[in-house]
Amino acid sequence: MTEFLLNICHLDAYYGKSHILQGIDLQVRSGELVVVVGRNGMGKTTLLRSVLGLSPVQRRGEIVFNGLETVKKLTHEIASMGVGYVPQGRLLFPSLTVDEHMQFVCRNKKKESRWTPEEVYNLFPELRQRARVNGGRLSGGEQQMLAIGRALVTNPLLLMMDEPSEGLAQIVIKRVEQVCRHLVSEGMAILLVEQNLEMAQGLADRAFIFYNGRIAYEAPGDTFRREREKVGSFLGI
Ligand SMILES: Nc1ncnc2c1ncn2[C@@H]1O[C@H](COP(=O)(O)OP(=O)(O)OP(=O)(O)O)[C@@H](O)[C@H]1O
Ligand SMILES: [Mg+2]
């Protein structure tokens, strides 16, 4: 077993002939919250898709998860090793209820599993009240909670979240931040892609800035919080 839960080495990723990610080295430890920021189109979503081997990304390099090489594995095999995914835009089913979303993906329904639908409802009591409501009728905040809950019931070791704050009110963003902190305090690892710099700086144990498919900046959370000007220059703010 390596000291890293996720160890990405020399990763290159392509869509057809377009070479998007170029030589990415990035690691996540258990119980660590690693943030990836970057402007639009810099390759953040492609990174998360690469970890899960989601089509149509093609990848080269090494991605070791929990001690096992995953580049030749299929998406469902990688997911079942303990990689949870909260995709950009949430990607819910408009005509499935909250509860149906949860039951659909719930892995390991045994009571002793950390994350059962019941435990998700304890984390997000708002969702319990909306259990029979269709995904398409939820507010943006409820949709994001459901997207997180749906990933949790797969009982992941690593939770990858792609811009969870997108389109949410500040109060809901704070709630998502709180949930991230709680999960990390329980030992879960989080790989968080964010464009909301305040949220990213508030949460990061370590941070990476992507620029044109490469890592332009890497720093511990404290440095990332301090180097506002340098960070801002990569993000064009
Ligand atoms: N399915 C696809 N086929 C071809 N090119 C793609 C595809 N998806 C993304 N790209 C290209 O790959 C590059 C990186 O895209 P990616 O979605 O990873 O960026 P991002 O950093 O997540 O951006 P955003 O902040 O807007 O979500 C962009 O140039 C984009 O146009
Ligand atoms: Mg994206």
Task: Pick out the low-confidence regions.
Answer: none
* H and E string: EEEHEEHEHHHHEHEHEEHH
Any idea of the CATH class of the largest domain? Alpha Beta
The computed structural class is alpha/beta
Global morphology: globular
CATH topology (fold) name of the largest domain: Rossmann fold
Q: Residue-averaged pLDDT, rounded?
A: 94
**Tally of structural domains:** 2
Q: DSSP helix count?
A: 10
Give the strand order, joined by hyphens, for the main sheet: 6-7-8-3-9-10
CATH architecture of the largest domain: 3-Layer(aba) Sandwich
* Subunit organisation of the chains: single chain
Quick recap:
By secondary structure, the chain is of the alpha/beta class. It has helices spanning 44-52, 75-80, 98-105, 117-123, 125-129, 140-152, 170-185, 197-203, 221-226, 228-235, and strands spanning 6-15, 18-28, 33-37, 58-65, 68-69, 83-86, 158-162, 189-193, 206-211, 214-220. It is globular and about 45 Å long.
